[in-house]
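Repro:
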Amino acid sequence: MPRALALAVAGLLVPISLGAQVGRFTAEDILDVVTAAVQDLSEDGRLVAMVERRGRDNAEFDHYRYGDPTYLAPSAVRLVVIDTDTGRRTLPLGDRLANVRQAAFSRDGRRLAILTASAAASANAAPAIALHVWTAGTSLAAPVPVQSPNTIASNSPLAWTPDGERVIVSMRSPERDRKAAERFAAITRGPIVVHTSKEPFLEWDDLNRANRWRSVAEIDVATGAVSDRVPERKLTSYTVSRDGSFVVFQEDVTEKTDYDTIGGSENRLQAWTRGEAEPTTVLAAKDLKGLTLRWSDDLQWFAYAKQGEVFVRATAGGDARSVTPRPKAATAEGQTPGADATTPPVVTPDEKKETETPESFSVTSFSRDGSRLLVTSRKGWYVVNVADATRRQVLTLEADERKNPRIAALDWTPDGSAILATWGARDRWERGVVRIDATTGTMTTLVKDSRVYSGIRMSRDGRRFVVSLSDGDRPAELVAADAQWNTLTPLTQLNPWIASRALPKSELVKYRDVDGKELYGVLRYPAGYVPGRSYPTVFEIYETFFDNGFNARAAFLTNHGYAVFHPSVNLVVGRPVEAWVKGVTSAANKLIEMGVADPDRLGVHGTSYGGYATVLLLTQTDRFKAAINISGKVDMVSFYTDSPRLGVRNTHAPEKSQDRIGGTLWEYPERYIEHSAVLQADRIRTPLLNISGDQDPNVPASQSREIYYALRRLGREVEWVRYVNGAHRPPNSVSEAVDFETRILDWYDRHLKPAETVKPSSGGGEL
């Protein structure tokens, strides 16, 4: 292992060259940060396939083709295979950038299948998907000449057959793509477009389903010969059994637009065994709707939760069976049928209040051999024996959620003896991985410290883990761990140059909102912070924050003398506007009390939902001296039915999800009005910068236009920046990205810094 790399991870991730001159983190630097994403880990954990991605290489998209099923956004990455024992790096596609869609190891780890996308032959055509196979010990992957009139679908998963001789992909006929492209062109360019309620689907809802038309096929990697497993049909998803004998798939049979779910569809669950003429229907669409299925490793069984009970059913057929039966009466032994000695005796109806309800369970996962299930409830985690439904509690949770750790199951150990989970303290940055014994419930800490562990993958044999690891202030690196997490081996050094930049230190801050509810936020100190000195402070808002981690924009702003705080709020359905006032202003008070924030130099901004919250906040308080709305909505009435690519999302967000209005426009018109900042624009006194992309399909740029013209009419200070080719992420080129970040800084400099201290924000210079 290179010494510099070893030192980097040992201190995770301290500056490597301690004598290097420290300079500012610039807007250009934001584009040069490299991130890693794991594509696959070999079953023995020896090899990991990953891609390295840099923002500078992925700054431009054709947003005009948003919603075109044949358009594939460019994604320039470098594919790397790393030996987790030796650290040796191999570039299967050479030292070049490619649009890597999928990569998967064969069972023995000797081969890596790779799907890449190349540029389309014409502006309105589907991209070409190519298959390559890399063999361990060689330098470059070899192309596989696919022998089929159909093409590999751009949204294809990738898997190997057990013998390692063929790969399993989804394919689509070129005719399907041609018709989808023609339909997209017709409803975007006309010359005449007719929308009618007589059609069962919204135009864009229906068009977005076009890429579900696909077949499941096997490709011989030696010859390129193709054999069908499932003929072309509308597949929402599919999985091939580990032994390769059958495929289970969900076929889209939706008859009309579903307004209850974004992208919602009705599917029937089917299984197709090799050699059979037709598939077998496992669950009809009416029975599958609303269920989330958890599968056994061999796909022979699946489990789901329904109305608080967990049911298990065989893929081959038969009735579903509850493994968490609701108590009806006490048994002779005073126990619920299907409960072991650790389960409390059943209380008869006469002994309990009528208002009490049975425990409600959710299902998490099967053990590797399929004999046990991990189920959870508000009271704890349970291991359930599938055969007889006996269950044993292995983790007890307090009724008060604040007293419980932040814990989430990762996987069972291969032998089924324990459950692995991520663990985090509720009131401090103490995070890691624990092992919970499936019999005794004994919890053993494998690793626990202040660092950020994410993207954890365990090899199938359980002997190796690969994890993305950060000290909380610097970009994450990939690290390998042994089964007991005794040794962490660095696999990457993605951003060595960042050691010469001044990055902010972060701190978890606890505070209370106006109602006294305990909340947390993440503070990033200005570069060169001097205790006892107050600083201009920027609040970047969205919903809730707890964990830290590298934040490029915060690094940029803190390098120019700002403290940056990410506050949490307690959102309530029907009254979200109150949450921002109660939570963000309280956070500001806390930072002022700490001596960090200058009360006369507070700024606030947010993107998307955060932009929506920002402008709403301005209608309720004048405490902030500058604000920025990035791609946020300001008019809930017009947003409800306005988008260049209108789908269910526009109505679902306020009715049922993120916007938290809690019902339709006709049920709660007063709520839609109250949460439309443009209708209260006369209350806004804070200078407001609006930034939008003209091609934004999520929040139309017309929302920024509305607040701009309203505030201008009222004589308030307002600015509107349009990136004509941009979308929800407004900039759409390297130069625009630098312009975007620089405008944010300049707006704050203009309003939060005395004129004599404001310096040019070109991004260069030393600290």
